[in-house]
Amino acid sequence: MGTRDPRVDAYIDKAGDFAKPILTRLRDAVHNACPDVEEAMKWSFPHFMYKGMLCSMASFKQHAAFGFWKGSLVLGDRSKNDEAMGQLGRLTTLADLPPKAVLAGYLKKAVALNDEGVKVKRGPARVAPKPVRTPADLVAALKKSKAAQTTFAGLSPSHKREYIEWINEAKTDETRARRLQKALEWMAEGKSRNWKYLRA
Q: CB count, 10 Å around CB of 113?
């Protein structure tokens, strides 16, 4: 019989209101598809274990994400991992999830791969990450802080995109300036945009 980890309950409880039903449905879907699954917290977010890593889910400020350990074999070309961590893209409402039967099919395929002991070759990415356009005001601000500039240069394209989207989504010049200042502070401390949501 599988196990439920109280730390996963706590993680869901602390998630944003939009994310709670998404994470709850994903968790239930995993347990329904694989009654022997065991929960664990790894890298500060919930993972599901069955004969090794099976899948994981995470919540951020504006979206949730779900990924299979062997995602390329489970979803292939249907993967949306260019949109967010995992293969299901940015999840902001229950409607963003695949239909229940489709999700169950993905999960059963992931379980079968682990049952068969299939390994995924971990090598260099097949597709070069999409370049990220840095707005001029961020470029100018980064020139004023060597520490922030170094952090930003070392971020992955998806982490750079999180900062850029957050700044670009500001509705007023005042909000944009505030976000730009906050981004510089965080980057000077070596932090990614969503550092607050990476819980231990």
A: 20
